[in-house]
Amino acid sequence: MTGAGAVPVLFGRQISRRWNDTMLGFAAGVMVSASFFSLILPGIDAGTEIYGSVAAAALSAGLGIALGALLVAWLNERLPHEHFIIGPEGADPGTLPRIWLFVIAITIHNFPEGMAVGIGFGGGDVKNGMSLATGIGLQNAPEGLAVAVALRGQGYARGRSFLIALLTGLVEPLGGLLGVALIHASVYVLPLGLTFAAGAMMYIISHEIIPETHRYGHQNRATTGLITGLILMMLLDVVLA
Q1: Three-state DSSP string of the chain
Q2: Does the first or last residue of the chain, that is N or C, have fewer Cβ atoms within 10 Å of its Cβ?
Q3: Span 25-75, pLDDT tens digits
Q4: pTM of the entire structure?
């Protein structure tokens, strides 16, 4: 889906900043909905069954969310990377080529999404895994287009911009494999793992996606996209449940 979203760049199609922010808002909405309906709530349900206590399950969910957000925040501080809009962040990149700084930034973003899907399937609930995979796939399309368009703006050729956007999507299956491995390590990891992935995604939504969609004064359209994405993902979760 990341590659599919980037296809228009091969044909020289340009999208307005307004439309780009609307689509990224949609992606944020899907992620918010997926975090709660497909990760946090199932995590609390699984914790209640495993620990035998709703209070313990809720505390485990809170711990998982906090740990997920803290890990992404730590990576954001420690790894040298560069965003297309806000510029360089993290450690001193030294002589690392600029394109790799972009790739690292996208990796920090995409890895938790793949991990969430892996945990969803690894927990044995195929329907929940399918719901997550569908939702994450939907929000990857506008992200793939945004990456490809941004690379074109940096002077990269059409084909190379598309290829780099496509390759960034391959980070997610790696995250998925890690998610499956964590869940198979112990049944007690499932509640924590689900909410951990949610916390990581919530950090990305608040720290990167929403601020970027509001940077050029398109907050109304971005918010409309967010609400639309949230509702669509909620409906998918209910239908596929």
Answers
A1: CHHHHHHHHHHCCCCCHHHHHHHHHHHHHHHHHHHHHHHHHHHHHHHHHHHCCHHHHHHHHHHHHHHHHHHHHHHHHHCCEEECCCEEECCCCCCCCHHHHHHHHHHHHHHHHHHHHHHHHHCCCHHHHHHHHHHHHHHHHHHHHHHHHHHHHCCCCHHHHHHHHHHHCCHHHHHHHHHHHHHHHCCCHHHHHHHHHHHHHHHHHHHHHHHHHCCCCCHHHHHHHHHHHHHHHHHHHHHHC
A2: C
A3: 999 999 999 999 989 999 999 999 999 999 999 999 999 999 999 999 999
A4: 0.86
